[in-house]
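Our consortium's second objective concerns turning raw sequence data into structural hypotheses that experimental partners can test. To show how far this objective has progressed, the report includes one record in full. It was chosen at random from the queue rather than selected for favorable results. The single chain below, 351 residues long, was entered without modification.
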Amino acid sequence: MRKLALLTTVLGAFGSAHAIELKAEPLGTLNLEGALTGYILHSNNTSDTKKTRYDVGSAIISLSKPAEPFGFTLMGGAYVTPVVGVGIVKTSQNTDPFSPLPVAYVEYKPMKEASVQVGKLPTIIGYESAFTYTNNYIQRGLVWNMQPVINNGVRITYEMEMFTAKAGINDGFYTLSTNDPKFAFEGSVGVTPTKEASLSFNFLIPDKDAIPNSTAEPANKREYNVVASYTFENLSFGADLMYVEAPKSSKAGVPEKAKASGGALHLSYELKPIKLSGRVEYFKDNSDTGSIDLVGLGDGNKGWTFTVTPAYKMGNLMMRADLSYVNADSAFTSNGKKSQARLGLEVGFLF
């Protein structure tokens, strides 16, 4: 089963990360990992006030202990989550919504098949990672832009041979950061018919009256997601299908029900020290009388995107470029254009 935890994605993004093992009695063995990267992105026409943005990509340290039977994971620092076609903000502004400690949870594993996690947890929805250095691309896709990132809550996982099930209660789209937190229910059912292939259905059902916050507007979005992956030697395929529905609620700021959908196909080929990744996606935000934008390019907009990212990793050094293109039916840039191309570069160290 493709693990949806962020730390597992760290190990898979550019091959194995160079984790540092620390002996800390009586806790046992601790794993220390991290990254320090910088990036630059240039757009041919802008979605915000700047055509060119350069900043810290990731300045992250991760400390974890395997659950044997108790464990924990802490990830802290500064990070940015640029999205194709969407305006890019400073790293400090990107870090603030989830705080400089975006992931922090404890884990109890009473048996080989089951575990319980409590705290600030990475979402179980989606194919792409929240942190740039753990992702195949510098920029996330618009399908990722519809998905949750971090939840505060409790998650139970049970694995049995080919099958995996997850269930949890959390604060949905980070509503614990508001003065009116609401519960949400999450779940996932996955199957791994072979070690090379996996398929999962994931969902998040927030309270219909969950109010907007700095991480999501609206924050009452019901999410239904299918993720598939297949690896054949050096070639990897992935699919990420999304359906989103925001129910009508005056408290949530949704005057009429809104819907959106999208799908992304991912492909990567790795021949160390080089890795080439590509993503093609289609998105559609249904028009609604409430003018609710669930994708990020305006209410009722639809279109497609592609991204190509060649990367080089040797030892702790990582370098990659990003070429992306977005084409939509309606204008979405600040200068009234229906398309946008971006060229990016990220350089840094992983340990």
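The partners drew two points from this record. The two ends are 25 Å apart (CA to CA). Residues 95 and 209 are 26 Å apart (CA to CA). Both points have been shared with the crystallography group to help prioritize constructs.
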